[in-house]
Structures are given as structure tokens and as C-alpha cells.
């Protein structure tokens, strides 16, 4: 699954991996648009390909597993079915000792640079045998540093920030 | 689909509808846990039942459609497959002229009050014929007011709030 | 998941287990009918519940796994979405040393005795550790005998039989 | 979605369209193999691309819709997840006035000519406006004739043929 260029996609950092992700006919729901939940499936698919690119020589993350601890998404434009694959950009927006954050953008097929959705996910590196989080290794941290960029700014986050301000 | 009690579920307002949502064997992924994306599917299912309860006599929202504009979720505990349905609580956490926010909590089957995930979604009432957002009607706003409670506080939101603070 | 009565369902043997299977809103496709592939998902769900009932005290089949080797389905009437669960009947139509056949019928919710689809599946009992088929145990054969009935007659089979006749 | 060659795939007629169909990580089930139901999803995907190729200039079938009336599948080898797309062959095995039959074979990615599954489906051309079957047009029949080959021989069919013989 070759990487594509992020050059024309708005607010997608150059370091992002851009993967062609096939939209299935069955991803449409009864409204005949791509169903909102399936975008998270596209994120998952892009992540699978990105991890192979990023950690291919040091597959700790894939072999030992990881847990999704949080995700968020903004839907910008309803997506129609297309025969050509959508393009999903994925990049790292930060990391801690055992966790890291990814940003996503879902664009149309080549020639359609509309950004249909933006999102983020937080993952924890996991020791499947020991059933507990584990520290990221040096090779993993370096791989993530190479694909780093700014976090996408989500509408939902801005509103949550207002609420959090009220709690502070 | 009868409503269940929210009495024992932590941080779920009493006004929430609590719906039994069947977890399918196929909701598990290759790690043999319930897949993270499927929780959003459970949210969708709970919303379908809740809208029938809330707007049953004045079905504008269902008949005219609505768009999901944003959602977010925190995963708290990995969920194992169970034969008995999970319980998904859903309630309104606020509304604007054309949009409203829902909070969710996913608990285990009766007898397992673990909260496995919490989330939120923002929806826009939509005029399918005119292909544009439409104002919520009085009956809709009153129905939402009856099931209102505080927004769930999500980890991801708190971190986003920190980032937003840095932008402010 | 309680068993329901098969009394009113045409061509479903009395020995069949009848399980309420929730149809999800997302099981509809862009034609706003229940998607044809999802019926096989309903079969899988009914099988999971039936195996718990049939083999609950002697869980060899579930613990050791099994493989689906063949399945077939006739679609009789397009199914609309309903809030109440569909009823899926499942029964045994025969077995060999290591394999067995199940018949299925998908009916509407209580009060709707339409049979929307009929199907069959052949499964092989599998030794996951040894990675090979294994013989059915006595308890398994007895459990299957208690839920046995005639195979559903499928349109596709009748046409295939004509073709097979031409090959003979 | 370019057509690929069927030259190396056993029992796949040369006239078949062979489409690269992405297997998603989520197509695996809790046994960490590609789930049996998802193969029917791959059939659906291949059909969508094939219909575009076959009927692209005379899109009656796609625009007016069609109904799946029957399908059957044999699973030959359990499929592991692979990053490269599977190849799904699809061809016509016969037609009537309003219906037609397709055969399928699911092979591995380029370089893996294992046939993992074989199947068939019967479809009825449908007049969505009039809500009834409709006759195939000349252009449709000619398009189908160009991609015709022998029906796959399925294990389940042979056993059903034996049963049908007993009924005769």
C-alpha cells in the first residue's frame, strides 16, 4: 500500500502518511451516505498501514498490541460513495512515556481534495503477555518523531474546552 | 425495547434512557475484545431507540433526518464478549437552535455496573428535502429538556482544553 | 437469551431453537433494506446462542472452535428495519463423524410470521491446538440429535441439483 | 479499479473479471482469521466493480437496482490477514429473462494463487419505481454473455443434489 502525497490536503502536515483506503459500498447507510461510524474504521485501516511503514523493522507495537484509549472526530462534509479509494492522512501529534496521539484527515479520491473529516486518537502501547501498558522503546519514539505534526483542531474540542474552563 | 434504570451507573444522570444493546460475537476483533469502533455503533443503536422514545409522537427528527457533526469517546476498560446485552445510557447535554449534544455511557449487562466507555455526539437537525440544517421545533426542545443532564467529562477533552488554552 | 416458540413459523421443525436477534439500524444498506450479507451475520448470532443452549454443559465445540465450510441462503422477502428483534430459528439437519449441518429460518418480530430467508451451514468441529478437524464427541452428537429436523429446501440447491444431474 | 488477470487461478474462466479487494483488519474475527461472513462482503464489493465494467455505458442494472435472491459459498482454506488486497474473480454462469447467476472465486494477493473460497449468487433485475422484477435488456444480456463461464461446483450443492434426488 504505497504512501501518497499530502501536498494538496489542507492542514495536513507534510510528514503525514497518506493511504488510499477503499470505501465499501456497504459503508453507506440507509441515507445513502458513508455512515459516520465507518470513518473510524477508515482511521483504523490507515493506522494499520501506517504502523507497518513506521515500525516495520521493529514491530513491537504491532506484535505486542496497543489499546485505543480515546478518539474524537469532526465530520465536515457528508461523503458520497466513490469507486476510487479515499485518502486518509495520519500523523503523530505527540507522545508520553507509554502513549501517543495521532491526527487524521479523510480526503476524497485523487482529484478531490475536500477534507471530509478530521480526527484524533490516543493509543497506549500494551504488553499483551503482562496485560499492562508498557513504555515506548527508543526506536518507536524515533519513528513517531519522524511523522510528527500539529494536532488537528476539532470543533468538539473547542466546545469541551469552554466547558472545562467553566469547571476550572 | 424497554428503558432500564440508570440508578447504579456512576455519573449517569437519572434522566438518561438506558437501553439494552446486544453485543454481537462479530463485534470482537482479532484481539478477542470488543473492537473500539463498535462502541460508536452501540451509541448509534442506543440513539435510534432513544429517539423513538423521546420523539415518538412528533417524529420530525427521525423523519427528516439528522447529521452527526462531531463525536468523541473515552475507553475505560476493555470489554469482553458477553451473551447478555450491554446497557447504553444516553441523555441530552445541551442544545442550540439547530443542534444538540448527547452524552453516552456504556455499562456491562445487568449485574456488571462497570462503565466501559463514555462519549458524546453533536447532531444537527436536518431538512432532507431542502438539504440544509433546520431549527429544532418546540416539541423537540421540550423532549430534549426532559432527558437533560451534565456532559460527560472526557480525558481527551481535558487534554484538548490544555491545547486550546495554549491557542487562546 | 430465552428460546422462543417455533409453533407459528412455516417449515421450521418444533425442535428448532428460535432466538430473538436484534437487527441494527446499520444493517440496512443504501437501498434502506436489510442488507443481504447481514442475514449471514444473523445466522452467526443465532448459532452462538444455540451452541450455548445445546452444548452449555459440555462446551467442547465452543472452546475448541469450529470452522464454517459451506453455507447457502435463499432470500424470500426484502426485510424492512424494525425496532423489535427478528426471530432466527436454527436446528440440526444431519451430522457426520466430524461435521454437522444446520438449517436456519429468519422470521419477523413477534406478530410477523413472514419467513424472510432460509439457509443452511455446514460446520466442522476443530481441534484448535492441533489445527485439524476432530471427531464429534458422544455428548455433542446427542445434543444435536435433540434439535434435529429436515433440511430446508433451497431454490439454489434445486438448480444446482439440475446442474449436478447434467454432470453425473 | 483495474481488472487483473485470471490466468493463474484454478477453475476461473478467462472471461472473469478479477478485482483487487482490500481485506480490512476488522474483517478478522476473534479467531484472528478472516470471518466467514465477510467473504460475502468481498463478493458484493467485486460485484460493484464488475457491474461498473460490464454495464458502465448502460447502467440500467445499477441505477434501477437489483435483488439478491440466493447465494452459496464453499470455504476451502482459512484466510489470514494480509496487507495486500485479495483477488476476487466474478463471472456470469447463466441468465433467465429477469435474473442471472454469477460465480465467484476468492484468491490471495498477487503471488498467492490459493483459492480460499468459491461461491455463486442469483440476482434479479429490479424496477425500483414499480417495485417489481423487470426483464433484462438486450445490452445487459450481451454484456453478461461476454463474461460467461461455467458455474463453480460447490460441495454444498452436491450434497443438496443428493437430498433433492431423494425428494424426486
Automatic annotation (TrEMBL), chains A, B, C, D:
Superkingdom in the source lineage: Bacteria
Feature: compositional bias, Basic and acidic residues: 154-168
Short name of any one Pfam family annotated for the protein: 4HBT_2
InterPro entries xref list: 4-hydroxybenzoyl-CoA_TE (IPR050563), HotDog_dom_sf (IPR029069)
Region spans: Disordered: 139-168
PANTHER family in the record: 4-HYDROXYBENZOYL-COA THIOESTERASE FAMILY MEMBER, LONG-CHAIN ACYL-COA THIOESTERASE FADM
Protein name (Swiss-Prot/TrEMBL): Thioesterase
Organism from which the protein derives: Ornithinimicrobium pekingense
